[in-house]
Amino acid sequence: MGAASRLSSQAKPVLAVIGSGHAGFEAARTLERQLSDAEADLLMISDTDHLNYSSLLPLVASGVIDPRHNAVALHRTLRRTRILLGEVSSVDLEARAVTVLHPGGMQRRYPWDQLLLTPGSVPRATGHPGVEDQALRFHTLADAVELRDHVLEQLQVADAATDEAERRARCTFIVVGAGYSGTEVTAQLQLLTCRTLPRFPTLGRDMLRWILVEAGTGVLQELNPKLGRHAGARLRARGVDIRLCTTISELVGTKATLSDGDEISSHSVIWTAGITPSPLVARLNLPTERGRVSVAPDLGVPGHPDVFAAGDAAAVPDLTRPGQLCGQTAQHATRQGVRAGQNMAARLRGRPPRNYRHRDLGFVVDLGGRDAAANPLHLPLTGLAAKVVTLGYHLWAIPTAGNKLRVGTDLVLNAIAPDQDVRVRSVNDETPLRLTHNGLRSRESP
Ligand SMILES: Cc1cc2nc3c(=O)[nH]c(=O)nc-3n(C[C@H](O)[C@H](O)[C@H](O)COP(=O)(O)OP(=O)(O)OC[C@H]3O[C@@H](n4cnc5c(N)ncnc54)[C@H](O)[C@@H]3O)c2cc1C
Q: What percentage of residues in the chain have a pLDDT greater than 70?
């Protein structure tokens, strides 16, 4: 690994952003808008080459939206930022350099003059034996594609199986966590399985079982209990078994034990119940709150005037609710990214930073089909009106015109054309790029 090298030969300050999620992307876009080429070199380091618009992931999993249409390509949007694909393995706050592990194993150090930390969060399932190793995750674009294939595969395997217990286990799906991702993915994938079922003459509607397990007292409880009641009622009406005040105690093989004592055989336990900041945060040796980097209201890291943090990985004080932290939502991350970019530009020019303050604008939850729940500006809506608001909001919020067009076209096509409920992989495709791979082999799903 060589010594840290400058991006350009001129001694321009380097403003670096770690992570290309909602916060990092908006920060880089703001820096490009606010700073001229002559003022700074901009650098973004991320382990993905896109911004994943996560709010629409359930629609990617259900096949309504093409995965690439949900990905905002960094190279098309951030034209003046140097984008490096790789994982930041460490940050040297004294020497002001980050170490990046690039694909292929190459490791390099890059210097910075100002740094923004936006590495986001990852799923967390600690304290639940077996779950961390065996449950399915739902966090990235690749997860959404994998999950869709997995769910379709279960019905295909169930159709071929002769053992009744095996058939039932394949048709049983357990989602843990009734926040927005758990509620939406249950709603979308349950509809996917219902519409796919007629393809399999040996499988009856009574075989299909969707169970939504939630440790709290309600669906969407932390976001909006009223919307949650509507969402819960709609899911129950479709046959989803919602278990409140319940969690998964253990997952051994295909046997899931719930805290209410029920033992359920399933090949599909989907974990959406908890997140924790990216592992990078623990390696920074910075003060944290609930695992997130402690920051001042202007998103600066105390004691490090040139370091900022934002998004899910930062413990940002919520100035509209004194004593509380901002929620880990795209709504906050997007706006914190803008504020972080503005404050980095202000610091470069010797101007004072401004605090982050945002009062939430309400939530939108897509329940599949024509159903949704939303409270734009805290006006509660359900059914078709909520659906229009929900999709309209996402089309407005997804960052680029190209993505709006692609996602909008997918929504229209899905409304008028027959679905494309097919898997991406063949049964031989577990390691599709390996030349050594050959032949059909048995593959046990988790
Ligand atoms: C399925 C799902 C549905 C959601 N739905 C909603 C919704 O409807 N409404 C809402 O408001 N919020 C929703 N959220 C939450 C929202 O997505 C997050 O709050 C938001 O993405 C946080 O943005 P961020 O920029 O902090 O982090 P992220 O968007 O997670 O981005 C972090 C980025 O940093 C990268 N990274 C991490 N560590 C490293 C490293 N060491 N080196 C290099 N790169 C790294 C990651 O790969 C990622 O690209 C949902 C989340 C999920 C998973």
A: 94
Nearest ligand 1 atom to the CA of 312 is 26
Rg (CA), the chain: 23
pLDDT, average across residues 418-433:
73
Other C-beta atoms lying within 10 Å of the C-beta of residue 415: 9
Is there an atom of ligand 1 within 6 Å of 24 CB? yes
| Ramachandran quadrant class, 285 (left: phi over 0; alpha: psi -120 to 50; beta: rest) | left
Please state, in angstroms and rounded to a whole number, the distance separating the CA atoms of residues 231 and 212: 12
CA-to-CA distance for 60 and 69, rounded, in angstroms? Answer: 9
First to last CA, the chain: 39
Cα distance between residue 400 and residue 68, in whole Å: 13
Answer whether 394's CB lies under 8 Å from 410's CB.
no
Instruction: Please report the pLDDT score of residue 127 as a whole number.
Output: 77
Tell me which of 278, 292, 361 to substitute to probe ligand 1's pocket, judged by most ligand atoms within 8 Å of the beta carbon: 278
DSSP state letter for 317: B
Q: Is the Cβ atom of 19 under 6 angstroms away from ligand 1?
A: yes
pLDDT of residue 98: 98
Measure Cα distances from 158 to 175, 269, 388, 440 in Å: 19, 16, 36, 18
Indicate which atom in ligand 1 lies nearest the CA of residue 57. Answer: 1
Which residue, chain included where needed, has tokens 């600066």?
300
What distance in Å separates the CA atoms of residue 76 and residue 175, rounded to the nearest whole number? 36
Is 360 close to ligand 1, i.e. is its CB under 6 Å away? no
DSSP for 137-203 reads E--SHHHHHHHHHHHHHHHHHHHH---HHHHHHHTEEEEE--SHHHHHHHHHHHHHHHHHGGG-TT-
